[in-house]
């Protein structure tokens, strides 16, 4: 066991009382969440990223590249609110800025999850609407401030853009009214919450509802065509 | 090991001969059923709830909130037939009343399961019918009193309602004729049986049949449209 | 350890050299196959059944009832070629006759699997054809005697019937020409092979192809309707 | 431990320092990849095959037959660049030639994966196009040389052919421009990369995109038909 906390952060190594327990718990929750997302098929190839903001304000985020279903605590690095890594040689994903944007905008945000699903990809690429509207589902109650199914939440959809700072400026215009996360077209969803458990529950809730929406659209064609010109 | 049965009920702790073995078995069956439902995607976010009625009449039900795929025996609390918790500080879900309604109505009911599936959600939100009709499926034989596929069972569908007592009054009108469980639109299914194993089998059977129904409706559009006005 | 081989057959109990090793291997292969089928969703509720014919001619089949995904070696009983149990008190499923029919008809048959899938259920209930025709798939090579994709196999579909002897008489007419198994409408598939590994591979192959067929039929509606009368 | 490296290659057997560590790592990566592909349903029946090229140029490939989800290191044999086995009695699949073709054509190729999915099978059998075109997906960035979603990759589709040398001559014409793998109609995909991890990531990426394409085609029918002649 060396004095280097980086080496000490290996998963499964028992930590002496002076080590970074808070960091290790955060990293471990990211590793577990990545496995959960992988079981659902939401982190295909090396897509997706996950982050947690610790109580002391530090931000833990997944490194660039690497499969998010097979993370180890070494896959988790620290960045500041501008998305810059604190340790030399660490490379965060370009999308880290989108995680930091949420932490900067919402003081209570404690975890941010980004995944790719077939439902979010297909719905966002086959609709020109500015947002998907989810209405009347009981599962809407998993999102912040929602206490009934009898409501209608908008999930904004933004054009994909490899220029992440530019993309984040589009997102910024809608963050205040975003209750259920947002979608980047052909790219996936961003969901957050006060901690990892709630963020994961909201991601599950959103993906469940997107699957329902996709199935409903496939049923539209089951209506016999009677009106034609 | 203390004298507090609440603390003694931790999963995996060997119990002295005087402890509440019946309760622990009931709680453990709920934990396992929650995992099974989660594997199938039937308890997304913090949705769903599970209960068991013990031989001595006590009712064990899942606490409000919390993910039903990751239950521990601490997640299981006791309520009376009116859905009120027996231990101070315990908070049951509002839907506990629907579980208790089944125990009150059916003397032989020993377990009640409530899950959310894409199929039940989509079918109930795209049909105005008062019930889904399942006909000619061999799997219908898993439901009470059914001995042949050559039958037709109705699965009543009720409008969702955050006022659970009011919702239960609608349900009460149809319980006697409900053989395969019922659906709350956009909310999920309620299924029961004399014990957890049979309740789980019936939940699986119903969800299997709802998946078949959803697929059949998607095939309707495969019929070339030839008659138009 | 008693002299009763029935009690000695508990899974995980080490067997003395004189015990029924062949039976235990057969029972264990059935337990594993049941888990595999359950992972794929092919044994919902208590549906499905599995059997193996040992080298000495004995037939091991799953008991009536019970979930086929959670079998133990106690779930496996012996029957004769007429489907009758050899031990008093053992109750085989009524469908055991369909397993025995295959063993009687095909001297090389060593394992028979019956599962329920959404694809086989939906395809068989939405088509009036006497058989499903599978053509040009590479996976057709997993069936007996097939060496190319450039072929067309018929999967006969029989009306469901609670009178199993009567159903088996319909099946008997087509067994010789059945290369990829058969379907009972709204009830599921029957597949067999010289041993459990090949039977499982053929079941997987058939279900894969049925899934492909179901998806193709859903795509039919993607063709813009231009010809109408 | 004998002198026969074949017997020494059993998974889980600790190897003395003089044994073939590089081979064992390659074989183990093939076994793990087969399990991963099986979890996703991409190696149904005994379909699919996997290979790795070691740093010293040796090619390790899965034997003919056998279920690719249940491989052991004994399932992995050595072949030369012409697809011929190095050890007497070893039987490689006929498709081994397609793996070797990639190793011969691309000096940097280190792993080749061939799987069968419902999406690739159905899309390739319901389209007469010479290739599938994938456009605007973020996940396209997992393929070689791709740095943006704003691109369009062609996935060539070749007619199936039991004469593998003849099939490989068709493939040879398109290999240089193949960035995301290729499809054999009704047969599955071929994907490769500099090592197993990247090959697996690209296979996942391609299958994710094919699933998106299949869902999009099913949505086409959701557009109300208004123009008819």
From TrEMBL, chains A, B, C, D:
Zn(2+) binds at residues 114, 116. It is an enzyme of class 4 (lyase). It holds the Pfam family Aldolase_II. Keywords: Amino-acid biosynthesis, Lyase, Metal-binding, Methionine biosynthesis, Zinc. Pathway: Amino-acid biosynthesis; L-methionine biosynthesis via salvage pathway; L-methionine from S-methyl-5-thio-alpha-D-ribose 1-phosphate: step 2/6. Its EC number is 4.2.1.109. Residues 28-214 form the Class II aldolase/adducin N-terminal domain. Binds 1 zinc ion per subunit. It catalyses: 5-(methylsulfanyl)-D-ribulose 1-phosphate = 5-methylsulfanyl-2,3-dioxopentyl phosphate + H2O. One of its GO terms (molecular function) is methylthioribulose 1-phosphate dehydratase activity. Its cofactor is Zn(2+). NCBIfam families: PRK09220.1, salvage_mtnB. Belongs to the aldolase class II family. MtnB subfamily. HAMAP family: Salvage_MtnB. Catalyzes the dehydration of methylthioribulose-1-phosphate (MTRu-1-P) into 2,3-diketo-5-methylthiopentyl-1-phosphate (DK-MTP-1-P). This is Methylthioribulose-1-phosphate dehydratase. It comes from Acetobacter fallax. The lineage of its organism: Bacteria, Pseudomonadati, Pseudomonadota, Alphaproteobacteria, Acetobacterales. The gene is mtnB.
């Amino acid at each position: 066991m060396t004095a280097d906390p980086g080496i000490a952060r290996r998963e499964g190594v028992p930590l002496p009382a002076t080590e970074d327990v808070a960091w290790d718990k955060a990293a471990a929750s990211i590793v577990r969440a990545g496995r959960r997302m992988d079981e659902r098929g939401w982190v295909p190839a090396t897509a997706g990223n996950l982050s947690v903001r610790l109580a002391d304000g530090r931000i833990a985020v997944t490194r660039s590249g690497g499969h998010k279903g097979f993370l180890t605590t070494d896959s988790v690095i620290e960045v500041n609110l501008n998305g810059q890594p604190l340790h030399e040689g660490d490379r965060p994903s370009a999308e880290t800025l989108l995680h930091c944007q949420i932490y900067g905008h919402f003081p209570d945000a404690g975890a941010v999850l980004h995944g790719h699903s077939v439902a979010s990809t297909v719905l966002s690429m086959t609709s020109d609407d500015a947002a998907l509207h989810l209405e009347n589902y009981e599962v809407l109650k998993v999102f912040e401030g929602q206490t009934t199914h009898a409501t209608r939440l908008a999930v904004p959809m933004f054009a994909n853009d490899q220029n992440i700072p530019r993309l984040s400026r589009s997102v910024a215009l809608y963050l205040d009214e975003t209750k259920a996360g947002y979608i980047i077209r052909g790219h996936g969803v961003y969901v957050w919450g006060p901690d990892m458990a709630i963020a994961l529950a909201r991601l599950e809730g959103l993906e469940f509802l997107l699957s329902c929406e996709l199935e409903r659209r496939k049923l539209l064609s089951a209506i016999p065509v009677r009106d034609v010109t």
